[in-house]
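Figure 2 data, in text form.
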Amino acid sequence: MSATLDTERFSQYFGGCPIIRVHGFTYPVKIFYLEDVLSILKSGDNSHLISDNASVPNEDSELTEEDKIALDEAINLSWSSDEFNPLLDLVSVEGGSKVHNYQHSLTGLTPLMVFAGKGRMDDVCMLLSFGVDCHLISKDGNRALEWAEQENRQEAAEIIKKHIQSLRFEFGGQQLLDKYIAAIDPEIIDVVLIEQLLRKICIDSNEEAILVFLPGWEDINRMKENLLANPFFKNSSRFVIIPLHSMVPYAVQRKVKLLDPNCKVEDFLQKTIDPPVSESVRKAASVLQEIGAFSHDEELTELGEKLGYLPVHPLTSKMLFFAILMNCLDPALTLACASNFRDPFVLPMRPNEKQKAAAARHELASLYAGQSDQLAVIAAFECWKNAKQRGLEGRFCSQYFISSSTMNMLLGMRKQLQAELIRYGFIPDDVSSYSLNVNHPGILHAVLVAGLYPMVGRMLPARLGKQIFVGAAAGSKVR
């Protein structure tokens, strides 16, 4: 478990369970560079990385059971008794790559690992000249290089290290890397490459789990769909593909941990290690009931299930559905993403600039015939997008006190959220017809109010010498 975990607290939560502390152990990490991966995958039958000049596929005949038994015995004799002749007789030029790269049935040791671990320099050089695979891993997680280092065979380790380094600058390494980079779009994650690497790991290794880190939800979703389209990964009895991200929809999250459908929300949350305040839970359930996501007995309604598909607040999801019905989707997408992200407006430090920033925000909101912060954000995004297309992004951001980085993040988030709406069938691939009323302020106001109700209010007229109040839907007043 994590080194920063409060173990005492967790122990108490689980009824005083014992705590076991294991000191001084770190998991070994091995580094593979992109050119290493390309070289490993180059010979795959279904690889899209094979260059025009790649070598012909290996036509070695499969090893028989007698061959495997003989190799196992030879590897055992070489490693345990330093009797190398049987292994040297088998590992010859005529032996072929199946023999050169053979891994012991129990230990996973290869001839190169044996000779490297025993410091047999001539034999190591011979196998390297045959083109053996230096990246094969034994059952304990070591490659030939690690075996040489572990057995303090520094000369053998240096030879293998230089050989690996040289491969990166030969045709199979550096030129393959150059050709790969020239053939792909560096802005797009190569899910095909990742898929092939995962397939090779699953075939060559007995590891039970693989964690893949990707930049964003859109890439995670694309990777998952690509894997599920591959017949190799479709076997649900062998593979379970679970996306983990803050934008994972509720329907997908339930696959990770199914809840008791008969358990009340507050009762379930009270079982957690840090239960929320009961009043907060009741208010949240009340909001879900008011918007139609929950029934009075806390059953998830059909609308609630639809709201749960999207990775945003339920009120925001409801606003998006109203926007789709009213053909006013584009500004609603901007507001939905902005509500889950930081304010795009920059707060200046100088007093005179603060007044300019407030005036700029008011000017932007007035473009949609209003004064609210939501309308200011929508207008700011549209104006920023137009300025960016004309090459005036910097000037616009400086004049209206806008954060360029925040706007670029909102642009990416909008694309991801729109992709989710398309994915679950709420809108078609061509979304142009769902934004026909974006320039109609009245429709936009209606969408915002109807979608965000009851979390709305209206500004009450200010009385002479008194503060301005906002009237909430329930009748209360707030400053």
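Caption note: The two ends are 47 Å apart (CA to CA).
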